[in-house]
Amino acid sequence: MSLQIFSARLIDLMQFNNLSKHKLADETGAQRKSVINWVEGRNYPRPNMLIKLANYFRVSTDYLVGLSDTNGRGDYVCKLEYEEIQPRLIAILEDYMKCKHLTKYALSKMFGMEQSTLERWFKKGAMPEVSVLIRISEKTNKSLDYLLGRE
C-alpha cells in the first residue's frame, strides 16, 4: 500500500473530526512535525503511534494504511501492552516460518530486508517499521490489527 493512501485517510479522518494537525498531535501525544510528515505522505508513523491513531479514530490499522477499504469503525482497542506486541509478532513469524519451511534468510528476502534486520527483531526485541509490518500482513494473510494485538 502507499503512503498516499495513509495520508489521504488520515486527512479524511481529521476533517471528519474537525481536527487540525496541531490538535491531532496534542490529542495523541505525537510530535507536530510527525503529524505534518504523515499528512504530507512523507512517512508512516511508528507502530506504537499507528496504534494510537487507530485507537483515537476508532478505526482499524488495516483501514488507516490501506489494507482494507472498510473503516472498521467500532471498538478496536489494543488488547496488549506495547511491550507485548513484539514477542507476539515474533511468535507469529516463527509459526509462519515453520508452516512454510522457511529459514530466517528466506523470510528476510521475502520481506525485502537484510537478514541482520530480521535478527534484531528476534534477538533484541526491535519492532519492524509500519511499511514492513504491511508486507508481513500481506505475506502471512494476517490483518495488521491481528499482528498488532488489536483483534
- Radius of gyration equals 16 Å
Supply the helix-strand structural class.
Answer: mainly alpha
Order of helices and strands: HHHHHHHHHH
- The rough form would be described as elongated
Helix content: 55-70%
Uncertain segments are none
Q: What is the number of beta strands?
A: 0
Alpha plus pi helix count = 10
Strand content: under 5%
Q: Note the main sheet.
A: none
Distance between the termini: 21 Å
Which whole number gives the mean pLDDT? Answer: 90
Can you characterise this structure?
The chain is mainly α. It has 10 helices and no strands. Helix 2 crosses helix 3 and helix 7 crosses helix 8. It is elongated and about 50 Å long. It starts with a helix and ends with a helix.
What features would you highlight for this structure?
single chain; 151 residues; mainly alpha; 64% helix
Please render the helix and strand layout as text.
Layout: H1 3-16, H2 21-28, H3 32-39, H4 47-57, H5 61-65, H6 82-100, H7 104-110, H8 115-124, H9 130-140, H10 144-147
What's a concise summary of this model?
The chain has 151 residues and is an all-alpha fold. The chain is 64% helix and 0% strand.
